Amino acid sequence: MPGAESSGLALFAAELKAHRTRLGWTQAELGDKIGFSGSFVSDVERCERTPRIDFARACDREMGLPGTLERMHEAVRNAAYPSFFAPVVPFEREAVRIHGFELGSVPGLLPPSVCYTECNRGGRVIEDHTEVAEMMTKINMIRVSALSPRASVELMRQIRSQYDDQQ
After folding, report:
1. Which of residues 63, 79, 95 is at a domain's end?
2. Does 96 share its domain with 161?
3. 40 vs 78, which has greater pLDDT?
4. DSSP result, the chain
5. pTM of structure
6. pLDDT-based confidence at 160, cuts 50/70/90?
7. Are residues 65 and 87 in the same domain?
8. Which residues form the domain of 58?
9. Fewer CB within 10 A of the end CB, N or C, for the chain?
């Protein structure tokens, strides 16, 4: 994971490995004890996968730690967001609904009265209720005009058939 060497994930991974090796356990042995695969433990230790909170709690329990990895998990969770998304994180944590946006926008969990848009020039949080409502209307219009999955498959079949006829 790029940049993981200085992240909360890297610190979590290093602590996990240090405690596991201190106990003389292999990754597979730890995985068996906590209900995860050894390859998942390996992926976390190499910063290739982000652990869930239940993973951290299970590791603490089995390794006899006083909540060490559970507390470190907060840093892992915070590091999961790119820096430009930082203003949105508090809204995302309080979200009650998922809104998907067209390509070029960041989908996410936001309160109904807030949305976040992004383009190649940067992103911004929209908190004005009128502007959010206008954005949602535009998004819903795009959704309505999109083909259903069944219609999309039929269109692809027609195009394929036309292509095959030309060959």
Report:
1. 79
2. yes
3. 40
4. -TTGGGSHHHHHHHHHHHHHHHTT--HHHHHHHHTS-HHHHHHHHTTSSPPPHHHHHHHHHHHT-SSHHHHHHHHHHHHTS-GGGGGGHHHHHT---EE---TTS--EE--TT-EEEEETTEEEEE--HHHHHHHHHHHHHHHHHSPPHHHHHHHHHHHHHHHHHH-
5. 0.49
6. confident
7. no
8. 4-79
9. C
Query: For the residues 14-32, what does the mean pLDDT come to?
Result: 95
User: Within this chain, do residues 98 and 141 fall inside the same structural domain, yes or no?
Assistant: yes
Burial (CB count <10 Å: 0-12, 13-18, 19+), residue 2: exposed
Single out the residue in 18, 44, 79 at which a domain terminates. 79
**Residues 23, 93: one domain?**
no
Q: Average the pLDDT over 102-111 and give the result.
A: 48
Residues 72 and 108 in one domain: no
How many independent structural domains does the chain possess?
2
Q: What is the pLDDT of residue 57?
A: 95
Q: How far apart are CA 123 and CA 126, in angstroms?
A: 10
